[in-house]
TrEMBL record:
Residues 1-186 form the PHP domain. It is an enzyme of class 3 (hydrolase). Pfam families: PHP (PF02811). It comes from Peptacetobacter hiranonis (strain DSM 13275 / JCM 10541 / KCTC 15199 / TO-931). PANTHER family: HISTIDINOL PHOSPHATASE-RELATED (PTHR21039), HISTIDINOL-PHOSPHATASE (PTHR21039:SF0). Coiled coil: none annotated. This is Histidinol-phosphatase.
């Protein structure tokens, strides 16, 4: 964490928010496991140590950079209550709500997609997100809304065109709920031919009156942070028509000029 802060300072970044993944259903909290159950399990971050380290580096570098407390909630229908409990206990500035798995089947390794057509798994994915935004509310932005395309073949399928109706419902709901969306800059890292979410989704969000928008680097390494393309993506947002982007403090959006 401290090395990441040093890299951010070197790059001239004035504010950074850490958002380690929490994915109940496929990952576990160490405290919930007996010693003999730990082997072979993937663990969520140790929250006590995580927030203590954030406090330490925030104090250490307070004159050089602002450091915020965040988490990325990889929520599923059957794990909502666990995230409600985690949110109540955590000193958070910012929460990304994401879908990384459905029915404990991962998207990244195609466990969820296997056995379904492209049309089927995109429909189920967006239906799942629509359910979640209606039933979980302790978050700031919806992360990488059309994430599935990161793992798809480039075969010309357009998930926006096929799913525009439910995407519109999702966006209308989160706008009314006072939530936002994230522009995820990892499209450059994964060599995708569109933004994430797509330019079509971003334009629709703007047309529907959406204002809360964050820019997330999705950095998992020093290389990701150094090549996060944030300024380039800001220009993309200006081209679409956005005037501002947000950071968050104590779960409240702070608007900045693009």
């Amino acid at each position: 964490m401290e090395e990441c802060v040093k890299d951010a300072i070197y790059l001239g970044i004035k504010e950074i928010c850490f958002t380690d993944h929490v994915d109940y259903g496929v990952k576990y909290d160490l405290k919930d496991l007996k010693p003999e159950e730990v082997e072979g399990k993937i663990l969520n971050v140790d929250f006590e140590k995580y927030f203590a380290e954030l406090d330490r580096v925030r104090e250490l570098y307070k004159d050089e950079i602002s450091i915020k407390n965040g988490l990325e909630f990889g929520i599923q229908k059957h794990t909502i209550s666990k995230f409600e409990n985690l949110f109540e206990k955590s000193p958070l500035d910012f929460v990304i709500m994401s879908v990384h798995e459905i029915d404990d089947k991962e998207l990244w390794d195609h466990s969820f997609q296997d056995g379904k057509t492209e049309e089927e798994y995109y429909r189920l994915y967006f239906e799942n997100i629509y359910y979640l935004v209606q039933n979980y509310h302790n978050y700031s932005v919806l992360g990488h809304l059309d994430l599935l395309k990161r793992y798809d073949e480039k075969d010309g399928y357009n998930p926006f065109v096929k799913n525009k109706e439910i995407i519109t419902k999702i966006l209308k709901y989160i706008i009314a709920d006072g939530k936002g969306i994230e522009l995820n800059t990892s499209t450059k890292k994964y060599h995708l031919d569109d933004l994430m979410p797509s330019r079509d989704i971003l334009k629709l969000y703007l047309e529907l009156g959406g204002e809360i928008l964050t820019i997330g680097s999705d950095s998992h390494s020093k290389k990701d942070l150094l090549n996060s393309h944030i300024e380039e993506l800001k220009q993309e947002l200006r081209d679409i028509g956005f005037k501002k982007f947000c950071t968050f403090e104590k779960m409240k959006p702070i608007f900045h000029e693009l």
